[in-house]
Protein backbone atom coordinates (compact mmCIF):
# COMPACT_ATOMS: atom_id res chain seq x y z
CA UNK A 1 0.00 0.00 0.00
CA UNK A 2 1.26 3.48 -0.90
CA UNK A 3 2.35 5.49 2.16
CA UNK A 4 2.47 9.29 1.66
CA UNK A 5 4.58 9.75 4.81
CA UNK A 6 7.18 7.22 3.66
CA UNK A 7 7.30 8.67 0.14
CA UNK A 8 7.76 12.23 1.40
CA UNK A 9 10.52 11.18 3.79
CA UNK A 10 12.35 9.31 1.04
CA UNK A 11 11.86 12.09 -1.53
CA UNK A 12 13.15 14.78 0.84
CA UNK A 13 16.31 12.79 1.58
CA UNK A 14 16.87 12.07 -2.13
CA UNK A 15 16.54 15.77 -3.02
CA UNK A 16 18.98 16.74 -0.25
CA UNK A 17 21.53 14.31 -1.70
CA UNK A 18 21.07 15.18 -5.39
CA UNK A 19 20.38 18.93 -5.40
CA UNK A 20 23.64 20.59 -4.43
CA UNK A 21 22.64 24.19 -5.12
CA UNK A 22 19.62 26.45 -5.42
CA UNK A 23 16.49 25.51 -7.36
CA UNK A 24 13.40 27.06 -8.87
CA UNK A 25 10.16 25.11 -9.20
CA UNK A 26 7.45 25.71 -11.75
CA UNK A 27 4.08 25.97 -9.98
CA UNK A 28 0.93 25.97 -12.10
CA UNK A 29 -1.68 25.97 -9.35
CA UNK A 30 -2.46 22.29 -9.98
CA UNK A 31 -2.10 19.61 -7.34
CA UNK A 32 1.03 18.00 -8.87
CA UNK A 33 3.26 21.07 -8.88
CA UNK A 34 1.89 22.24 -5.51
CA UNK A 35 2.78 18.93 -3.87
CA UNK A 36 6.21 18.95 -5.54
CA UNK A 37 6.82 22.51 -4.31
CA UNK A 38 6.04 21.53 -0.72
CA UNK A 39 8.32 18.47 -0.82
CA UNK A 40 11.23 20.42 -2.32
CA UNK A 41 10.67 23.27 0.14
CA UNK A 42 11.00 20.78 3.00
CA UNK A 43 14.28 19.57 1.52
CA UNK A 44 15.89 22.87 0.50
CA UNK A 45 14.17 25.56 2.59
CA UNK A 46 15.14 29.08 1.43
CA UNK A 47 17.25 27.64 -1.40
CA UNK A 48 14.15 26.92 -3.50
CA UNK A 49 11.90 29.48 -5.15
CA UNK A 50 8.45 28.50 -6.43
CA UNK A 51 7.55 30.52 -9.52
CA UNK A 52 3.95 30.90 -10.67
CA UNK A 53 3.61 32.34 -14.15
CA UNK A 54 0.40 34.13 -15.07
CA UNK A 55 0.36 33.14 -18.74
CA UNK A 56 -2.95 34.86 -19.44
CA UNK A 57 -4.33 31.34 -19.93
CA UNK A 58 -5.54 30.64 -16.40
CA UNK A 59 -8.99 30.36 -14.81
CA UNK A 60 -10.67 33.17 -12.89
CA UNK A 61 -9.14 33.54 -9.42
CA UNK A 62 -6.25 31.13 -10.09
CA UNK A 63 -3.48 33.55 -9.10
CA UNK A 64 -5.13 34.43 -5.77
CA UNK A 65 -5.67 30.74 -4.98
CA UNK A 66 -2.00 29.95 -5.69
CA UNK A 67 -0.84 32.80 -3.42
CA UNK A 68 -3.05 31.58 -0.56
CA UNK A 69 -1.97 27.95 -0.92
CA UNK A 70 1.79 28.55 -1.17
CA UNK A 71 1.69 31.05 1.72
CA UNK A 72 -0.19 28.56 3.88
CA UNK A 73 2.34 25.83 3.03
CA UNK A 74 5.25 28.14 3.86
CA UNK A 75 6.76 27.89 0.38
CA UNK A 76 8.99 30.76 -0.82
CA UNK A 77 7.36 32.00 -4.04
CA UNK A 78 7.13 34.67 -6.72
CA UNK A 79 4.23 35.59 -9.03
CA UNK A 80 5.03 36.73 -12.58
CA UNK A 81 2.81 38.33 -15.24
CA UNK A 82 3.87 36.99 -18.66
CA UNK A 83 0.55 37.18 -20.54
CA UNK A 84 1.98 39.17 -23.46
CA UNK A 85 4.85 36.71 -23.94
CA UNK A 86 2.66 33.60 -24.07
CA UNK A 87 -0.07 35.08 -26.28
CA UNK A 88 2.56 36.37 -28.71
CA UNK A 89 4.16 32.90 -28.93
CA UNK A 90 0.74 31.38 -29.70
CA UNK A 91 -0.24 33.89 -32.38
CA UNK A 92 -1.17 32.01 -35.55
CA UNK A 93 -0.58 28.57 -33.95
CA UNK A 94 -3.38 26.06 -34.63
CA UNK A 95 -1.82 22.58 -34.31
CA UNK A 96 -2.21 21.30 -30.70
CA UNK A 97 1.23 19.67 -30.60
CA UNK A 98 2.86 22.92 -31.68
CA UNK A 99 0.82 24.81 -29.07
CA UNK A 100 2.18 22.62 -26.31
CA UNK A 101 5.74 22.94 -27.56
CA UNK A 102 5.52 26.76 -27.89
CA UNK A 103 4.16 26.96 -24.35
CA UNK A 104 6.89 24.63 -23.08
CA UNK A 105 9.59 26.78 -24.68
CA UNK A 106 8.08 29.98 -23.27
CA UNK A 107 8.02 28.47 -19.77
CA UNK A 108 11.66 27.43 -20.04
CA UNK A 109 12.65 30.92 -21.22
CA UNK A 110 10.95 32.43 -18.17
CA UNK A 111 12.35 29.89 -15.71
CA UNK A 112 15.90 30.15 -17.05
CA UNK A 113 15.69 33.92 -16.56
CA UNK A 114 14.34 33.56 -13.03
CA UNK A 115 16.87 30.85 -12.19
CA UNK A 116 19.72 33.12 -13.25
CA UNK A 117 18.39 35.90 -11.03
CA UNK A 118 17.99 33.45 -8.11
CA UNK A 119 21.41 31.85 -8.82
CA UNK A 120 19.73 28.47 -9.28
CA UNK A 121 21.11 25.51 -11.21
CA UNK A 122 18.06 23.25 -10.92
CA UNK A 123 14.49 23.33 -12.26
CA UNK A 124 11.96 21.24 -10.35
CA UNK A 125 8.80 20.11 -12.14
CA UNK A 126 5.63 18.40 -10.97
CA UNK A 127 5.84 15.76 -13.71
CA UNK A 128 3.92 12.56 -12.93
CA UNK A 129 3.82 9.20 -14.72
CA UNK A 130 0.95 9.91 -17.17
CA UNK A 131 2.81 13.01 -18.40
CA UNK A 132 5.85 11.14 -19.71
CA UNK A 133 3.88 8.07 -20.76
CA UNK A 134 1.57 10.11 -23.01
CA UNK A 135 4.47 12.23 -24.31
CA UNK A 136 5.95 9.15 -25.99
CA UNK A 137 9.54 8.12 -26.52
CA UNK A 138 11.22 4.78 -27.13
CA UNK A 139 8.52 2.29 -28.08
CA UNK A 140 5.71 4.51 -26.76
CA UNK A 141 3.54 6.39 -29.23
CA UNK A 142 3.09 10.12 -28.62
CA UNK A 143 -0.52 10.62 -27.49
CA UNK A 144 0.10 14.28 -26.66
CA UNK A 145 3.28 16.14 -25.75
CA UNK A 146 2.92 17.42 -22.20
CA UNK A 147 4.54 20.84 -22.01
CA UNK A 148 6.83 19.77 -19.16
CA UNK A 149 8.10 16.68 -21.03
CA UNK A 150 7.67 16.52 -24.80
CA UNK A 151 7.17 20.28 -24.94
CA UNK A 152 10.62 21.07 -23.58
CA UNK A 153 13.22 22.46 -25.98
CA UNK A 154 16.16 20.20 -26.87
CA UNK A 155 18.60 22.31 -24.86
CA UNK A 156 17.68 23.35 -21.31
CA UNK A 157 20.35 25.18 -19.29
CA UNK A 158 19.11 23.81 -15.98
CA UNK A 159 19.20 20.38 -14.35
CA UNK A 160 15.68 18.93 -14.26
CA UNK A 161 14.41 17.41 -11.00
CA UNK A 162 11.10 15.49 -10.96
CA UNK A 163 10.30 14.11 -7.48
CA UNK A 164 6.84 12.82 -8.48
CA UNK A 165 7.88 11.26 -11.80
CA UNK A 166 6.86 7.68 -10.93
CA UNK A 167 3.57 8.53 -9.22
CA UNK A 168 0.01 8.49 -10.53
CA UNK A 169 -2.66 11.06 -9.77
CA UNK A 170 -4.32 9.09 -6.96
CA UNK A 171 -0.97 8.78 -5.15
CA UNK A 172 -0.25 12.50 -5.56
CA UNK A 173 -3.66 13.22 -4.05
CA UNK A 174 -2.80 11.00 -1.08
CA UNK A 175 0.30 13.17 -0.50
CA UNK A 176 -1.80 16.32 -0.88
CA UNK A 177 -4.15 15.05 1.82
CA UNK A 178 -1.12 14.32 4.03
CA UNK A 179 -0.07 17.99 3.66
CA UNK A 180 -3.59 19.37 4.15
CA UNK A 181 -3.91 20.43 0.51
CA UNK A 182 -7.49 19.95 -0.75
CA UNK A 183 -7.48 16.44 -2.21
CA UNK A 184 -10.27 17.01 -4.68
CA UNK A 185 -8.90 20.13 -6.34
CA UNK A 186 -9.46 19.11 -9.93
CA UNK A 187 -6.56 18.67 -12.37
CA UNK A 188 -5.70 21.65 -14.56
CA UNK A 189 -3.38 21.37 -17.58
CA UNK A 190 -0.01 23.11 -17.44
CA UNK A 191 -0.66 24.86 -20.78
CA UNK A 192 -3.84 26.26 -19.23
CA UNK A 193 -6.85 27.24 -21.30
CA UNK A 194 -4.75 27.19 -24.50
CA UNK A 195 -5.44 23.46 -24.96
CA UNK A 196 -9.16 24.03 -24.38
CA UNK A 197 -9.38 26.40 -27.33
CA UNK A 198 -9.55 24.57 -30.63
CA UNK A 199 -7.60 26.58 -33.19
CA UNK A 200 -5.68 29.79 -32.67
CA UNK A 201 -5.53 31.20 -29.14
CA UNK A 202 -6.45 34.89 -28.75
CA UNK A 203 -7.12 37.05 -25.72
CA UNK A 204 -10.77 37.38 -26.77
CA UNK A 205 -11.23 33.62 -26.96
CA UNK A 206 -9.52 33.15 -23.59
CA UNK A 207 -11.89 35.67 -22.01
CA UNK A 208 -14.93 33.83 -23.43
CA UNK A 209 -13.66 30.48 -22.21
CA UNK A 210 -12.74 31.86 -18.79
CA UNK A 211 -16.31 33.15 -18.28
CA UNK A 212 -17.88 29.88 -19.47
CA UNK A 213 -15.53 27.86 -17.25
CA UNK A 214 -16.51 29.91 -14.20
CA UNK A 215 -20.21 29.32 -14.91
CA UNK A 216 -19.66 25.57 -15.25
CA UNK A 217 -17.59 25.35 -12.06
CA UNK A 218 -20.18 27.30 -10.05
CA UNK A 219 -22.92 24.90 -11.15
CA UNK A 220 -20.92 21.71 -10.68
CA UNK A 221 -19.81 22.79 -7.19
CA UNK A 222 -23.44 22.48 -6.05
CA UNK A 223 -23.72 18.78 -6.94
CA UNK A 224 -23.71 16.12 -4.23
CA UNK A 225 -21.20 14.09 -6.25
CA UNK A 226 -18.60 16.24 -8.00
CA UNK A 227 -16.78 14.74 -11.00
CA UNK A 228 -13.03 14.16 -10.89
CA UNK A 229 -12.50 16.79 -13.61
CA UNK A 230 -14.86 19.19 -15.40
CA UNK A 231 -14.20 21.94 -17.89
CA UNK A 232 -15.32 23.78 -21.03
CA UNK A 233 -13.79 23.56 -24.51
CA UNK A 234 -14.22 26.43 -26.99
CA UNK A 235 -14.67 24.90 -30.43
CA UNK A 236 -13.57 26.36 -33.74
CA UNK A 237 -17.04 25.69 -35.18
CA UNK A 238 -19.71 28.36 -35.10
CA UNK A 239 -23.45 27.83 -35.37
CA UNK A 240 -26.64 29.79 -35.88
CA UNK A 241 -28.60 30.77 -32.80
CA UNK A 242 -31.28 33.16 -31.62
CA UNK A 243 -30.99 35.83 -28.92
CA UNK A 244 -34.38 37.41 -28.36
CA UNK A 245 -35.77 37.83 -31.86
CA UNK A 246 -32.36 38.33 -33.42
CA UNK A 247 -30.29 35.83 -35.42
CA UNK A 248 -26.74 35.31 -34.17
CA UNK A 249 -23.88 33.26 -35.57
CA UNK A 250 -22.02 32.42 -32.40
CA UNK A 251 -19.41 30.17 -30.87
CA UNK A 252 -19.98 26.60 -29.71
CA UNK A 253 -18.63 25.17 -26.46
CA UNK A 254 -18.40 21.58 -25.27
CA UNK A 255 -18.78 20.58 -21.62
CA UNK A 256 -16.49 17.78 -20.47
CA UNK A 257 -16.98 16.04 -17.08
CA UNK A 258 -15.14 12.80 -16.30
CA UNK A 259 -14.40 10.44 -13.43
CA UNK A 260 -11.00 8.80 -13.02
CA UNK A 261 -8.57 7.67 -10.35
CA UNK A 262 -5.20 8.04 -12.06
CA UNK A 263 -5.81 10.01 -15.26
CA UNK A 264 -4.79 7.06 -17.45
CA UNK A 265 -8.40 6.03 -18.11
CA UNK A 266 -11.65 7.92 -17.51
CA UNK A 267 -15.41 7.61 -17.91
CA UNK A 268 -17.69 10.48 -18.78
CA UNK A 269 -19.77 11.65 -15.84
CA UNK A 270 -23.57 11.34 -16.24
CA UNK A 271 -24.53 14.84 -15.08
CA UNK A 272 -28.31 15.14 -14.41
CA UNK A 273 -30.13 16.58 -17.46
CA UNK A 274 -31.67 19.40 -15.45
CA UNK A 275 -28.18 20.50 -14.32
CA UNK A 276 -26.85 20.40 -17.89
CA UNK A 277 -29.86 22.44 -19.01
CA UNK A 278 -29.17 25.10 -16.39
CA UNK A 279 -25.47 25.22 -17.34
CA UNK A 280 -26.42 25.69 -21.00
CA UNK A 281 -28.89 28.46 -20.19
CA UNK A 282 -26.45 30.23 -17.87
CA UNK A 283 -23.70 30.17 -20.50
CA UNK A 284 -25.80 31.25 -23.48
CA UNK A 285 -27.67 33.91 -21.49
CA UNK A 286 -24.57 35.20 -19.76
CA UNK A 287 -22.22 35.14 -22.76
CA UNK A 288 -24.01 36.41 -25.91
CA UNK A 289 -21.08 35.39 -28.13
CA UNK A 290 -21.82 31.70 -27.37
CA UNK A 291 -24.92 30.32 -29.08
CA UNK A 292 -24.63 26.55 -28.54
CA UNK A 293 -23.56 24.17 -25.74
CA UNK A 294 -22.91 20.44 -26.26
CA UNK A 295 -21.97 17.66 -23.81
CA UNK A 296 -19.07 15.28 -24.45
CA UNK A 297 -19.93 11.66 -23.54
CA UNK A 298 -16.64 10.09 -24.67
CA UNK A 299 -14.64 7.85 -22.34
CA UNK A 300 -10.82 7.60 -22.24
CA UNK A 301 -10.04 5.60 -24.31
CA UNK A 302 -10.96 6.19 -27.09
CA UNK A 303 -10.79 9.93 -26.34
CA UNK A 304 -8.23 11.68 -24.15
CA UNK A 305 -9.46 13.73 -21.19
CA UNK A 306 -8.40 17.07 -22.66
CA UNK A 307 -9.45 17.71 -26.26
CA UNK A 308 -5.94 18.80 -27.27
N to C succession of SSEs: HEHEHEHHEHEHHEEEHE
* Number of helical segments with 4 or more residues: 9
CATH H-level name of the largest domain... which superfamily?
A: HUPs
Strand order of the largest sheet: 3-2-1-4-5
| CATH level 1 class label of the largest domain | Alpha Beta
Could you give the distance between the termini? 34 Å
Give the structural class: alpha/beta
- Helix proportion range: 25-40%
CATH fold assignment of the largest domain: Rossmann fold
Number of strands: 9
Largest sheet: 5 strands, parallel
State the domain count.
Answer: 2
Task: State the low-pLDDT regions, or none.
Answer: 135-140, 144-151
**Outline type:** globular
Strand content: 15-25%
Label the CATH architecture of the largest domain.
3-Layer(aba) Sandwich
Task: Kindly list the characteristics that best describe this protein.
308 residues; alpha/beta; Rossmann fold; GMP Synthetase, Chain A, domain 3; five-stranded parallel sheet; four-stranded mixed sheet; 9 helices; globular
Amino acid sequence: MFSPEDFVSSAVQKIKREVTGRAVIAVSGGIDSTVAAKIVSEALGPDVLAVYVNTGLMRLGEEEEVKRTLSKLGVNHRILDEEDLFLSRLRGVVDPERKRKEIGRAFIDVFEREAKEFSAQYLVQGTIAPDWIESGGGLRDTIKSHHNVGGLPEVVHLKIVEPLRDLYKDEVRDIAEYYGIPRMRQPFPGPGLAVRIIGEVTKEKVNLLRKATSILENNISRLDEIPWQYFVVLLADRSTGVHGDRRVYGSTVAIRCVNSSDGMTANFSPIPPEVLAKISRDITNGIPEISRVVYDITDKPPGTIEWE
